[in-house]
Write a structure and sequence with these properties.
Blueprint (H helix, E strand, L loop, with lengths): L10 H16 L16 H29 L2 H16 L5 H32 L8 E4 H11 L1 H7 L3 E4 L5 E4 L1 H18 L5 E6 L6 E8 L6 H4 L22 H11 L3 E6 L5 E8 L7
Helix pairs in contact: 3-4, 5-7, 7-9
């Protein structure tokens, strides 16, 4: 008889859970009697079993969310392409209208690629295969390129996106990882900032060994309880009555990348309202001169 700990919301999930549990129990059964399943010999075995089951459940949950989030955006993209193709064949659109629609499709594809990149980052981090490749680069240039990338998204959202950073901020960082951090924080500020202005600023003290990147919005802010959990997997800083698409892993990925870069990330209330995400990064890794 299946015990209460194995009860699941459906017969299928119940069977899968019990099969996983039975399979795990087999690993600690008598080697001379592989067909005989025995209960864990100690509390530590039971705890380990619980951890493994939780890991399987988290994996399955993420796969389900990922499949949903990667499939759904494709429907409107395909619809936009089909509509444009039909209009072009009928001679309905002018060159300016075609350009406008292609710009929208391009923006949708960029958003889709960001989702796919986030999924890949999660896979690499959780499997221990996430490696940094620091090289000399200019943070000031990276900040402006990311802001430029979000220009159309910000305009569409009714958000004023501004940059306050020196033109030249030399250092040694993994460029792609750094872009991912800034990209995610700017994207969140636009998405959750309630059409308020977003400011991306960089503090580079003369002679200092670190830089400080701040992304500030003027939105509704984040509640104290949400500040405690937003850097966890499958978490988003939105209320129960709000609906936003996304994996809920973006800030977790950002936190993991910042930690790998020997930096620190924090979130605070902005003076006058809104939220500030602050990232402090060393200009050079500790193993570099």
């Amino acid at each position: 008889m299946v015990g209460p700990a194995c009860v699941a919301p459906s017969i299928v999930s119940l069977q899968v859970t019990w099969q996983v549990r039975a399979s795990l129990l087999m690993t600690i059964s008598d080697a001379h009697s592989p067909d005989r399943i025995v209960l864990p010999a100690s509390v530590s075995d039971e705890l380990r079993l619980t951890e493994l089951l939780a890991a399987v459940a988290a994996r399955d949950s993420f796969i389900a969310v990922a499949a949903h989030e990667l499939r759904n955006p494709m429907t409107p993209i395909v619809g936009q392409i089909e509509l444009l193709l039909k209009g072009v064949k009928a001679g309905k659109y002018s060159s300016a209208q075609v350009e406008e629609r292609l710009t929208r499709i391009h923006q949708s594809m960029q958003n889709y690629l960001r989702r796919a990149a986030t999924l890949l980052d999660v896979s690499r981090i959780t499997s221990g295969n996430f490696k940094l490749a620091p090289a000399p680069c200019n943070l000031g240039e990276i900040i402006r390129l990311v802001a430029e990338t979000f220009g159309e998204t910000a305009r569409h959202a009714g958000t004023l996106l501004e940059v306050d950073a020196p033109q030249s901020i030399p250092g040694s960082w993994d460029r792609l990882a750094l872009e991912q951090v800034i990209d995610n924080l700017v994207s969140n500020a636009i998405k959750y900032g309630g059409k308020s202005p977003v400011l991306v600023s960089v503090e580079d003290p003369a002679g200092g060994s670190s830089v400080v990147i701040r992304i500030r919005d003027h939105g509704p802010g984040i509640s104290p309880q949400n500040k405690e959990r937003i850097f966890g997997q499958f978490e988003r800083a939105i209320g129960a009555d709000e609906r936003q698409t996304g994996f809920g892993v973006g800030l977790w990925v950002v936190g993991q990348i910042v930690e790998a870069m020997e930096g620190v990330i924090s979130v605070t209330d902005a003076e006058g309202g809104g939220t500030v995400f602050e990232v402090v990064l060393p200009k050079y890794s500790k193993d570099k001169p």
